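FORM 7B - TANDEM STRUCTURE REPORT

SECTION 1: FIRST PROTEIN
SEQUENCE AND C-ALPHA COORDINATES:
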Amino acid sequence: MSKFWKFITNKSEDGQEENVELRIQGDIVSDDDVWIYEWLEMDHASPNAFRDELNEYDGKDITVWIDSYGGDVFAAAGIYNALKNHNGKITTKIDGKAMSAASVIAMAGDKVMMSPVAIMMIHNPLSSVQGYASDMRKQADVLDSVKESIVNAYQLKSGRSRNKISQMMDDETWMDANTAMKNGFADEMLYTDKEEDEPKNKAINFCFNRLAIQNCAKDSMQKLIKIEESRNIQEPKDDIKAVLEKINDKFDKINDRLDELEDKAPKEPEPKDEEKIKQLKAKLALKCRLL
Protein backbone atom coordinates (compact mmCIF):
# COMPACT_ATOMS: atom_id res chain seq x y z
CA MET A 1 0.00 0.00 0.00
CA SER A 2 1.32 3.46 -0.92
CA LYS A 3 1.41 5.69 2.15
CA PHE A 4 1.85 9.42 2.55
CA TRP A 5 4.15 8.92 5.54
CA LYS A 6 7.51 7.24 5.90
CA PHE A 7 9.37 6.40 9.10
CA ILE A 8 13.18 6.52 8.90
CA THR A 9 15.38 5.23 11.70
CA ASN A 10 18.87 6.74 11.77
CA LYS A 11 21.38 4.51 13.51
CA SER A 12 24.71 5.37 15.07
CA GLU A 13 27.93 3.58 14.18
CA ASP A 14 27.57 1.04 16.97
CA GLY A 15 24.18 -0.01 15.62
CA GLN A 16 22.12 1.65 18.32
CA GLU A 17 19.02 3.58 17.30
CA GLU A 18 19.91 7.28 17.32
CA ASN A 19 16.74 9.05 16.22
CA VAL A 20 13.56 8.51 14.27
CA GLU A 21 12.33 10.73 11.44
CA LEU A 22 8.83 10.75 10.01
CA ARG A 23 8.15 12.31 6.63
CA ILE A 24 4.54 13.33 5.87
CA GLN A 25 3.68 14.21 2.29
CA GLY A 26 0.80 13.76 -0.13
CA ASP A 27 -2.92 13.96 0.56
CA ILE A 28 -4.40 13.24 3.97
CA VAL A 29 -7.46 11.04 3.53
CA SER A 30 -9.92 9.20 5.76
CA ASP A 31 -9.97 5.43 6.23
CA ASP A 32 -13.18 5.25 4.18
CA ASP A 33 -11.48 6.72 1.12
CA VAL A 34 -8.31 4.63 1.24
CA TRP A 35 -9.53 2.20 -1.42
CA ILE A 36 -9.83 5.01 -3.98
CA TYR A 37 -6.24 6.07 -3.49
CA GLU A 38 -5.04 2.47 -3.54
CA TRP A 39 -6.85 1.90 -6.82
CA LEU A 40 -5.33 5.06 -8.34
CA GLU A 41 -1.94 4.23 -6.74
CA MET A 42 -1.72 7.69 -5.16
CA ASP A 43 0.04 8.65 -1.92
CA HIS A 44 -2.44 8.68 0.91
CA ALA A 45 -2.96 8.22 4.63
CA SER A 46 -4.89 5.79 6.74
CA PRO A 47 -4.99 7.15 10.31
CA ASN A 48 -5.49 3.72 11.87
CA ALA A 49 -2.53 2.24 10.02
CA PHE A 50 -0.46 5.31 10.94
CA ARG A 51 -1.28 4.88 14.60
CA ASP A 52 -0.27 1.23 14.53
CA GLU A 53 3.07 1.98 12.90
CA LEU A 54 3.75 4.90 15.26
CA ASN A 55 3.32 2.54 18.23
CA GLU A 56 6.40 0.66 17.08
CA TYR A 57 8.51 3.68 18.07
CA ASP A 58 7.02 4.12 21.55
CA GLY A 59 9.35 5.99 23.88
CA LYS A 60 11.48 7.48 21.10
CA ASP A 61 11.77 11.12 20.14
CA ILE A 62 10.47 11.73 16.62
CA THR A 63 11.16 14.48 14.10
CA VAL A 64 8.15 14.95 11.80
CA TRP A 65 8.87 16.53 8.41
CA ILE A 66 5.73 17.92 6.74
CA ASP A 67 5.16 18.80 3.09
CA SER A 68 1.46 18.45 2.34
CA TYR A 69 -1.44 20.37 0.85
CA GLY A 70 -3.72 18.84 3.48
CA GLY A 71 -6.90 16.87 2.99
CA ASP A 72 -9.48 15.28 5.26
CA VAL A 73 -9.73 17.11 8.59
CA PHE A 74 -10.89 14.02 10.48
CA ALA A 75 -7.91 12.02 9.23
CA ALA A 76 -5.64 14.90 10.27
CA ALA A 77 -7.29 14.88 13.70
CA GLY A 78 -6.52 11.17 14.08
CA ILE A 79 -2.86 11.72 13.20
CA TYR A 80 -2.68 14.80 15.47
CA ASN A 81 -4.04 12.77 18.38
CA ALA A 82 -1.63 9.90 17.71
CA LEU A 83 1.35 12.27 17.78
CA LYS A 84 0.12 14.09 20.91
CA ASN A 85 -0.32 10.75 22.70
CA HIS A 86 3.12 9.51 21.65
CA ASN A 87 5.48 8.69 24.49
CA GLY A 88 8.39 10.84 23.38
CA LYS A 89 9.22 14.35 22.21
CA ILE A 90 7.69 15.41 18.89
CA THR A 91 9.39 18.06 16.75
CA THR A 92 7.53 19.07 13.60
CA LYS A 93 9.51 20.65 10.77
CA ILE A 94 7.78 22.20 7.76
CA ASP A 95 10.19 22.11 4.85
CA GLY A 96 7.73 22.85 2.06
CA LYS A 97 4.11 23.44 2.95
CA ALA A 98 1.65 22.66 5.72
CA MET A 99 -1.70 23.73 4.36
CA SER A 100 -5.23 23.16 5.56
CA ALA A 101 -5.44 19.86 7.47
CA ALA A 102 -1.65 19.44 7.33
CA SER A 103 -1.29 22.58 9.48
CA VAL A 104 -3.36 20.82 12.16
CA ILE A 105 -0.86 17.94 12.20
CA ALA A 106 1.98 20.46 12.55
CA MET A 107 0.41 21.76 15.76
CA ALA A 108 1.09 18.38 17.42
CA GLY A 109 4.78 19.24 17.77
CA ASP A 110 6.28 20.14 21.11
CA LYS A 111 8.39 22.41 18.92
CA VAL A 112 7.30 23.63 15.47
CA MET A 113 10.00 24.74 13.05
CA MET A 114 9.66 26.13 9.52
CA SER A 115 12.02 26.44 6.61
CA PRO A 116 12.62 30.06 5.52
CA VAL A 117 10.93 29.14 2.23
CA ALA A 118 8.04 27.14 3.72
CA ILE A 119 4.37 28.15 3.82
CA MET A 120 1.61 27.44 6.33
CA MET A 121 -2.01 28.09 5.40
CA ILE A 122 -5.10 27.96 7.60
CA HIS A 123 -8.71 28.35 6.48
CA ASN A 124 -12.26 27.40 7.35
CA PRO A 125 -13.32 23.77 6.84
CA LEU A 126 -15.27 23.12 3.67
CA SER A 127 -17.58 20.37 2.48
CA SER A 128 -20.13 19.50 -0.16
CA VAL A 129 -23.66 18.25 0.37
CA GLN A 130 -26.82 17.69 -1.59
CA GLY A 131 -30.38 17.32 -0.45
CA TYR A 132 -33.13 19.38 1.10
CA ALA A 133 -32.69 22.84 2.60
CA SER A 134 -32.69 21.21 6.03
CA ASP A 135 -29.69 19.12 4.94
CA MET A 136 -27.83 22.26 3.90
CA ARG A 137 -28.54 23.99 7.22
CA LYS A 138 -27.44 20.93 9.19
CA GLN A 139 -24.19 20.70 7.22
CA ALA A 140 -23.47 24.36 7.99
CA ASP A 141 -23.85 23.60 11.71
CA VAL A 142 -21.52 20.61 11.33
CA LEU A 143 -18.88 22.81 9.68
CA ASP A 144 -19.16 25.31 12.53
CA SER A 145 -18.46 22.53 15.03
CA VAL A 146 -15.54 21.24 12.97
CA LYS A 147 -14.09 24.74 12.88
CA GLU A 148 -14.26 24.98 16.68
CA SER A 149 -12.31 21.73 16.99
CA ILE A 150 -9.62 23.06 14.65
CA VAL A 151 -9.44 26.31 16.60
CA ASN A 152 -8.72 24.21 19.71
CA ALA A 153 -5.53 22.85 18.15
CA TYR A 154 -4.40 26.25 16.88
CA GLN A 155 -5.12 27.94 20.21
CA LEU A 156 -3.27 25.34 22.28
CA LYS A 157 -0.16 25.96 20.21
CA SER A 158 -0.31 29.68 19.45
CA GLY A 159 -1.96 31.05 22.60
CA ARG A 160 -3.93 33.49 20.43
CA SER A 161 -7.56 34.27 21.23
CA ARG A 162 -10.28 32.18 19.62
CA ASN A 163 -11.73 35.26 17.92
CA LYS A 164 -8.36 36.14 16.37
CA ILE A 165 -7.81 32.59 15.12
CA SER A 166 -11.37 32.42 13.77
CA GLN A 167 -10.78 35.65 11.85
CA MET A 168 -7.52 34.31 10.42
CA MET A 169 -9.36 31.21 9.22
CA ASP A 170 -12.12 33.36 7.70
CA ASP A 171 -9.46 35.31 5.81
CA GLU A 172 -7.64 32.14 4.62
CA THR A 173 -4.33 33.22 6.11
CA TRP A 174 -1.03 32.30 4.42
CA MET A 175 2.04 32.52 6.66
CA ASP A 176 5.74 32.42 5.92
CA ALA A 177 8.09 31.40 8.73
CA ASN A 178 8.39 34.87 10.26
CA THR A 179 4.63 35.46 10.18
CA ALA A 180 3.93 32.04 11.68
CA MET A 181 6.39 32.71 14.51
CA LYS A 182 4.87 36.14 15.12
CA ASN A 183 1.41 34.58 15.44
CA GLY A 184 2.62 31.69 17.62
CA PHE A 185 2.06 28.93 15.06
CA ALA A 186 5.79 28.20 14.84
CA ASP A 187 8.65 28.43 17.33
CA GLU A 188 11.78 28.70 15.21
CA MET A 189 13.06 29.07 11.67
CA LEU A 190 15.21 26.28 10.24
CA TYR A 191 18.76 26.84 8.96
CA THR A 192 19.30 30.12 10.84
CA ASP A 193 21.59 31.29 13.61
CA LYS A 194 19.67 33.24 16.27
CA GLU A 195 22.62 35.57 16.90
CA GLU A 196 22.71 36.56 13.24
CA ASP A 197 19.07 37.62 13.35
CA GLU A 198 19.89 40.68 15.49
CA PRO A 199 20.05 44.08 13.73
CA LYS A 200 23.65 44.90 12.84
CA ASN A 201 23.33 48.67 12.48
CA LYS A 202 22.46 49.96 15.93
CA ALA A 203 22.19 53.55 14.71
CA ILE A 204 19.34 52.52 12.42
CA ASN A 205 17.92 50.34 15.17
CA PHE A 206 17.26 53.28 17.53
CA CYS A 207 16.43 55.95 14.97
CA PHE A 208 12.79 54.89 14.83
CA ASN A 209 12.36 56.08 18.43
CA ARG A 210 13.78 59.53 17.76
CA LEU A 211 10.40 61.25 17.49
CA ALA A 212 9.27 59.77 20.80
CA ILE A 213 12.46 60.95 22.50
CA GLN A 214 12.13 64.39 20.95
CA ASN A 215 8.52 64.81 22.01
CA CYS A 216 9.33 63.65 25.52
CA ALA A 217 12.19 66.14 25.83
CA LYS A 218 10.06 68.92 24.38
CA ASP A 219 7.27 68.31 26.89
CA SER A 220 9.77 68.32 29.77
CA MET A 221 11.37 71.58 28.65
CA GLN A 222 8.03 73.28 28.18
CA LYS A 223 7.02 72.30 31.71
CA LEU A 224 10.30 73.74 32.95
CA ILE A 225 9.64 77.04 31.20
CA LYS A 226 6.17 77.28 32.73
CA ILE A 227 7.63 76.70 36.19
CA GLU A 228 10.18 79.47 35.66
CA GLU A 229 7.53 81.82 34.36
CA SER A 230 5.37 81.13 37.41
CA ARG A 231 8.26 82.25 39.60
CA ASN A 232 8.22 85.60 37.80
CA ILE A 233 11.89 85.59 36.87
CA GLN A 234 12.79 89.07 35.71
CA GLU A 235 14.68 88.41 32.49
CA PRO A 236 14.07 90.09 29.12
CA LYS A 237 12.01 87.88 26.87
CA ASP A 238 14.21 88.64 23.86
CA ASP A 239 17.31 87.42 25.71
CA ILE A 240 15.61 84.09 26.47
CA LYS A 241 14.70 83.63 22.83
CA ALA A 242 18.25 84.32 21.72
CA VAL A 243 19.67 81.71 24.10
CA LEU A 244 17.12 79.11 23.02
CA GLU A 245 17.84 79.77 19.36
CA LYS A 246 21.54 79.05 19.94
CA ILE A 247 20.65 75.81 21.71
CA ASN A 248 18.33 74.79 18.89
CA ASP A 249 21.05 75.46 16.30
CA LYS A 250 23.43 73.12 18.11
CA PHE A 251 20.79 70.43 18.37
CA ASP A 252 19.98 70.81 14.67
CA LYS A 253 23.60 70.06 13.81
CA ILE A 254 23.48 66.92 15.95
CA ASN A 255 20.23 65.92 14.25
CA ASP A 256 21.77 66.40 10.78
CA ARG A 257 24.71 64.24 11.79
CA LEU A 258 22.36 61.46 12.87
CA ASP A 259 20.58 61.66 9.52
CA GLU A 260 23.94 61.16 7.78
CA LEU A 261 24.64 58.09 9.91
CA GLU A 262 21.24 56.58 9.10
CA ASP A 263 21.74 57.07 5.35
CA LYS A 264 24.96 55.06 5.36
CA ALA A 265 24.92 51.38 4.36
CA PRO A 266 24.43 49.02 7.34
CA LYS A 267 27.64 47.64 8.78
CA GLU A 268 28.81 45.92 11.92
CA PRO A 269 29.76 48.73 14.33
CA GLU A 270 33.18 48.69 15.93
CA PRO A 271 33.41 49.03 19.73
CA LYS A 272 34.29 52.71 19.47
CA ASP A 273 31.29 53.31 17.18
CA GLU A 274 28.98 51.83 19.79
CA GLU A 275 30.28 54.33 22.34
CA LYS A 276 29.66 57.19 19.92
CA ILE A 277 26.13 55.98 19.34
CA LYS A 278 25.47 55.96 23.09
CA GLN A 279 26.66 59.55 23.31
CA LEU A 280 24.47 60.55 20.38
CA LYS A 281 21.48 58.93 22.02
CA ALA A 282 22.04 60.98 25.17
CA LYS A 283 22.34 64.18 23.19
CA LEU A 284 19.31 63.28 21.11
CA ALA A 285 17.19 63.12 24.27
CA LEU A 286 17.62 66.90 24.53
CA LYS A 287 16.69 67.56 20.89
CA CYS A 288 13.57 69.71 20.71
CA ARG A 289 12.16 72.89 19.26
CA LEU A 290 11.47 75.15 22.20
CA LEU A 291 10.01 78.18 20.38
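SECTION 2: SECOND PROTEIN
SEQUENCE AND C-ALPHA COORDINATES:
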Amino acid sequence: MALAAFAGFDPVQFLNTVVSLSTAFVLGTAIGAERQYRQRTAGLRTNALVAVGAAAFVDIGMRLNGNPAAVQVLAYVVSGVGFLGAGVIMKEGLNIRGLNTAATLWGSAAAGGTAGADLIAESVLIAGFVLAANTSLRPLVNLINRQPLDEGTTEATYELRVGVSTSEVAQVRSALTEALDARNYAVREIVTEDTADDLVDLIATLAGSSAEPGELDAVIAAMEAQGGVRHAAWSMRTAD
Protein backbone atom coordinates (compact mmCIF):
# COMPACT_ATOMS: atom_id res chain seq x y z
CA MET A 1 0.00 0.00 0.00
CA ALA A 2 2.81 2.39 0.88
CA LEU A 3 4.50 1.56 -2.43
CA ALA A 4 1.29 2.39 -4.27
CA ALA A 5 1.10 5.67 -2.37
CA PHE A 6 4.55 6.77 -3.48
CA ALA A 7 3.96 5.51 -7.00
CA GLY A 8 0.89 7.72 -7.21
CA PHE A 9 2.82 10.90 -6.41
CA ASP A 10 1.92 13.62 -8.91
CA PRO A 11 4.32 16.61 -8.86
CA VAL A 12 1.84 18.91 -10.62
CA GLN A 13 -0.99 18.05 -8.22
CA PHE A 14 1.40 18.39 -5.27
CA LEU A 15 2.43 21.86 -6.43
CA ASN A 16 -1.25 22.77 -6.68
CA THR A 17 -1.72 21.60 -3.08
CA VAL A 18 1.30 23.69 -1.98
CA VAL A 19 -0.23 26.79 -3.56
CA SER A 20 -3.67 26.10 -2.03
CA LEU A 21 -2.40 25.51 1.50
CA SER A 22 0.07 28.40 1.34
CA THR A 23 -2.70 30.76 0.26
CA ALA A 24 -4.98 29.50 3.03
CA PHE A 25 -2.17 29.86 5.58
CA VAL A 26 -1.35 33.44 4.58
CA LEU A 27 -4.98 34.58 4.38
CA GLY A 28 -5.92 32.80 7.62
CA THR A 29 -2.96 34.48 9.33
CA ALA A 30 -4.02 37.89 8.01
CA ILE A 31 -7.61 37.43 9.19
CA GLY A 32 -6.42 36.07 12.53
CA ALA A 33 -4.02 38.99 13.05
CA GLU A 34 -6.93 41.42 12.94
CA ARG A 35 -8.91 39.26 15.38
CA GLN A 36 -5.86 38.97 17.65
CA TYR A 37 -5.37 42.75 17.65
CA ARG A 38 -8.97 43.20 18.75
CA GLN A 39 -8.42 40.61 21.49
CA ARG A 40 -11.10 38.20 20.28
CA THR A 41 -11.30 34.60 21.43
CA ALA A 42 -10.55 33.04 18.01
CA GLY A 43 -7.25 34.72 17.28
CA LEU A 44 -4.34 34.44 14.89
CA ARG A 45 -3.32 30.78 15.23
CA THR A 46 -6.90 29.51 15.41
CA ASN A 47 -7.86 31.27 12.17
CA ALA A 48 -4.70 30.06 10.42
CA LEU A 49 -5.33 26.46 11.51
CA VAL A 50 -8.97 26.49 10.44
CA ALA A 51 -8.09 28.01 7.05
CA VAL A 52 -5.40 25.38 6.42
CA GLY A 53 -7.67 22.54 7.58
CA ALA A 54 -10.54 23.68 5.39
CA ALA A 55 -8.28 24.04 2.36
CA ALA A 56 -6.80 20.60 3.01
CA PHE A 57 -10.17 18.87 3.20
CA VAL A 58 -11.42 20.53 0.03
CA ASP A 59 -8.17 19.69 -1.74
CA ILE A 60 -8.44 16.04 -0.67
CA GLY A 61 -12.04 15.92 -1.90
CA MET A 62 -10.99 17.26 -5.30
CA ARG A 63 -8.15 14.76 -5.53
CA LEU A 64 -10.47 11.85 -4.67
CA ASN A 65 -13.08 12.79 -7.21
CA GLY A 66 -12.88 9.34 -8.78
CA ASN A 67 -13.42 7.52 -5.46
CA PRO A 68 -16.93 8.32 -4.16
CA ALA A 69 -16.58 5.99 -1.16
CA ALA A 70 -13.43 7.75 0.04
CA VAL A 71 -15.07 11.16 -0.37
CA GLN A 72 -18.09 9.99 1.64
CA VAL A 73 -15.89 8.69 4.47
CA LEU A 74 -13.94 11.96 4.41
CA ALA A 75 -17.16 13.89 4.90
CA TYR A 76 -17.92 11.82 7.99
CA VAL A 77 -14.41 12.49 9.28
CA VAL A 78 -14.87 16.25 8.93
CA SER A 79 -18.19 16.11 10.78
CA GLY A 80 -16.91 13.78 13.49
CA VAL A 81 -13.80 15.81 14.21
CA GLY A 82 -16.01 18.88 14.54
CA PHE A 83 -17.86 17.21 17.42
CA LEU A 84 -14.56 16.04 18.91
CA GLY A 85 -13.17 19.57 18.78
CA ALA A 86 -16.27 20.95 20.47
CA GLY A 87 -15.57 18.63 23.38
CA VAL A 88 -12.23 20.29 24.17
CA ILE A 89 -13.64 23.83 24.23
CA MET A 90 -14.38 24.97 27.77
CA LYS A 91 -15.76 28.18 29.20
CA GLU A 92 -14.29 29.37 32.48
CA GLY A 93 -16.13 32.46 33.64
CA LEU A 94 -15.68 35.07 30.91
CA ASN A 95 -12.82 33.15 29.28
CA ILE A 96 -13.01 30.43 26.64
CA ARG A 97 -10.26 27.82 26.42
CA GLY A 98 -9.55 25.10 23.89
CA LEU A 99 -10.29 26.82 20.58
CA ASN A 100 -6.72 26.45 19.37
CA THR A 101 -6.66 22.79 20.44
CA ALA A 102 -9.92 22.16 18.56
CA ALA A 103 -8.53 23.79 15.43
CA THR A 104 -5.34 21.72 15.77
CA LEU A 105 -7.43 18.54 15.94
CA TRP A 106 -9.09 19.57 12.70
CA GLY A 107 -5.69 20.10 11.07
CA SER A 108 -4.50 16.73 12.39
CA ALA A 109 -7.57 15.07 10.91
CA ALA A 110 -6.77 16.67 7.55
CA ALA A 111 -3.23 15.29 7.71
CA GLY A 112 -4.54 11.85 8.67
CA GLY A 113 -7.22 11.85 5.99
CA THR A 114 -4.64 12.77 3.37
CA ALA A 115 -2.33 9.99 4.53
CA GLY A 116 -5.24 7.54 4.35
CA ALA A 117 -5.85 8.63 0.78
CA ASP A 118 -2.24 7.65 -0.06
CA LEU A 119 -1.26 11.29 -0.55
CA ILE A 120 1.84 10.98 1.63
CA ALA A 121 3.69 14.11 0.56
CA GLU A 122 0.54 16.18 0.93
CA SER A 123 -0.03 14.71 4.40
CA VAL A 124 3.47 15.78 5.47
CA LEU A 125 2.87 19.24 4.00
CA ILE A 126 -0.38 19.69 5.94
CA ALA A 127 1.28 18.57 9.17
CA GLY A 128 4.05 21.10 8.50
CA PHE A 129 1.55 23.93 8.14
CA VAL A 130 -0.25 22.91 11.34
CA LEU A 131 3.06 22.87 13.22
CA ALA A 132 4.00 26.22 11.69
CA ALA A 133 0.72 27.77 12.84
CA ASN A 134 1.29 26.58 16.39
CA THR A 135 5.00 27.44 16.62
CA SER A 136 6.23 30.01 14.12
CA LEU A 137 3.16 32.21 14.59
CA ARG A 138 3.58 32.35 18.37
CA PRO A 139 6.06 35.29 18.28
CA LEU A 140 3.66 37.25 16.09
CA VAL A 141 0.82 36.54 18.53
CA ASN A 142 2.97 37.80 21.41
CA LEU A 143 3.93 40.91 19.44
CA ILE A 144 0.29 41.75 18.71
CA ASN A 145 -0.74 41.10 22.32
CA ARG A 146 1.89 43.58 23.55
CA GLN A 147 0.42 46.41 21.50
CA PRO A 148 -1.55 49.04 23.48
CA LEU A 149 -5.26 48.28 23.43
CA ASP A 150 -7.34 50.96 21.69
CA GLU A 151 -10.64 51.03 23.57
CA GLY A 152 -12.18 53.21 20.88
CA THR A 153 -11.85 50.60 18.13
CA THR A 154 -11.67 47.30 19.98
CA GLU A 155 -14.78 45.13 19.83
CA ALA A 156 -15.79 44.63 23.44
CA THR A 157 -18.60 44.61 25.95
CA TYR A 158 -18.86 47.85 27.91
CA GLU A 159 -20.51 48.09 31.31
CA LEU A 160 -21.19 51.04 33.58
CA ARG A 161 -21.69 50.25 37.25
CA VAL A 162 -23.27 52.84 39.56
CA GLY A 163 -23.72 52.22 43.29
CA VAL A 164 -26.79 54.05 44.55
CA SER A 165 -29.01 54.08 47.61
CA THR A 166 -32.26 52.17 47.18
CA SER A 167 -34.35 55.32 47.56
CA GLU A 168 -32.67 56.96 44.53
CA VAL A 169 -32.59 54.03 42.10
CA ALA A 170 -35.33 55.26 39.75
CA GLN A 171 -33.93 58.78 39.55
CA VAL A 172 -30.34 57.65 38.93
CA ARG A 173 -31.45 55.05 36.37
CA SER A 174 -33.23 57.79 34.43
CA ALA A 175 -30.23 60.11 34.66
CA LEU A 176 -27.89 57.34 33.47
CA THR A 177 -30.08 56.55 30.48
CA GLU A 178 -30.31 60.24 29.55
CA ALA A 179 -26.53 60.72 29.84
CA LEU A 180 -25.87 57.78 27.54
CA ASP A 181 -28.59 58.81 25.07
CA ALA A 182 -27.06 62.29 24.90
CA ARG A 183 -23.84 60.70 23.64
CA ASN A 184 -25.65 58.35 21.24
CA TYR A 185 -24.92 55.16 23.19
CA ALA A 186 -27.65 52.56 23.01
CA VAL A 187 -28.22 50.54 26.18
CA ARG A 188 -28.72 46.79 25.84
CA GLU A 189 -29.97 46.41 29.40
CA ILE A 190 -29.83 47.91 32.87
CA VAL A 191 -29.99 45.47 35.77
CA THR A 192 -29.78 45.92 39.52
CA GLU A 193 -27.57 43.97 41.88
CA ASP A 194 -28.04 44.09 45.65
CA THR A 195 -24.81 44.93 47.48
CA ALA A 196 -26.02 46.07 50.93
CA ASP A 197 -29.24 46.67 52.85
CA ASP A 198 -29.65 50.21 51.53
CA LEU A 199 -27.37 50.07 48.49
CA VAL A 200 -27.70 48.52 45.02
CA ASP A 201 -25.57 48.61 41.89
CA LEU A 202 -27.08 49.71 38.61
CA ILE A 203 -25.28 47.86 35.82
CA ALA A 204 -25.80 49.27 32.32
CA THR A 205 -24.53 47.19 29.38
CA LEU A 206 -24.04 49.08 26.13
CA ALA A 207 -25.39 47.61 22.91
CA GLY A 208 -22.40 48.65 20.80
CA SER A 209 -19.03 46.90 20.66
CA SER A 210 -16.91 50.07 20.71
CA ALA A 211 -16.91 53.26 22.75
CA GLU A 212 -14.90 56.40 23.37
CA PRO A 213 -13.23 56.26 26.82
CA GLY A 214 -13.42 60.02 27.27
CA GLU A 215 -17.17 60.02 26.75
CA LEU A 216 -17.67 57.19 29.23
CA ASP A 217 -15.54 59.07 31.76
CA ALA A 218 -17.86 62.06 31.31
CA VAL A 219 -20.92 59.87 31.95
CA ILE A 220 -19.32 58.51 35.12
CA ALA A 221 -18.52 62.04 36.29
CA ALA A 222 -22.15 63.03 35.72
CA MET A 223 -23.35 60.03 37.71
CA GLU A 224 -21.02 60.80 40.63
CA ALA A 225 -22.64 64.24 40.82
CA GLN A 226 -26.08 62.70 41.27
CA GLY A 227 -27.60 62.57 44.71
CA GLY A 228 -27.55 59.18 46.37
CA VAL A 229 -24.69 57.83 44.21
CA ARG A 230 -21.94 56.18 46.31
CA HIS A 231 -19.61 55.13 43.50
CA ALA A 232 -19.50 54.88 39.70
CA ALA A 233 -17.14 53.27 37.19
CA TRP A 234 -17.06 51.73 33.73
CA SER A 235 -15.28 48.65 32.46
CA MET A 236 -14.74 46.70 29.26
CA ARG A 237 -14.10 43.04 28.52
CA THR A 238 -13.07 41.40 25.28
CA ALA A 239 -13.48 37.71 26.12
CA ASP A 240 -17.05 37.30 24.81
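SECTION 3: OBSERVATIONS ON SECOND PROTEIN
The two ends are 48 Å apart (CA to CA).
The mean pLDDT is 79.

SECTION 4: SIGNATURE
Preparer initials: ____
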